[in-house]
Design brief:
Number of helices: 2
Strand order of the largest sheet: 2-3-4-1-5-8-7-6
Strand content: 35-45%
Shape: globular
Structural class: alpha+beta
Helix content: 10-25%
Number of strands: 8
Distance between the termini: 12 Å
Amino acid sequence: MGSRLNPYISFDGDARQAMEFYKEVFGGTLTLNTYGAFGRPDAPEADKIMHGMLETPSGFTLMGADSTPGTEHSPGTNFSVSLSGDDDAELRGYWERLSAGGSVAVPLDKQMWGDVFGMCTDRFGVPWMVDITEPQG
């Protein structure tokens, strides 16, 4: 897989509708995963989107999710830049350099869905998400 860089948009409860709209616009394959599918089936947000990904025939990748409960949603600033892939050393190197001099919101660590994931804001105020998947054997 290597590494990919793409926008990641946060939505205020309407991620499913937004991501389906973008699929209509760009075409491609849309994958939607709910909070309920990842261990929180009884939570009030169980049917909300924890992670969505649209991969288009033109090579675009757009990711999005509903904001987690208690997180302020502010249109215009509801995005991050996502770095993802299975090259552990490369992605950890990016994480170290991006988080240096910035702030870490979620330390780079193993998550409930199995990936190593972290969120930081670089020293210029740009929010980043890094997700390292286990190589598929």
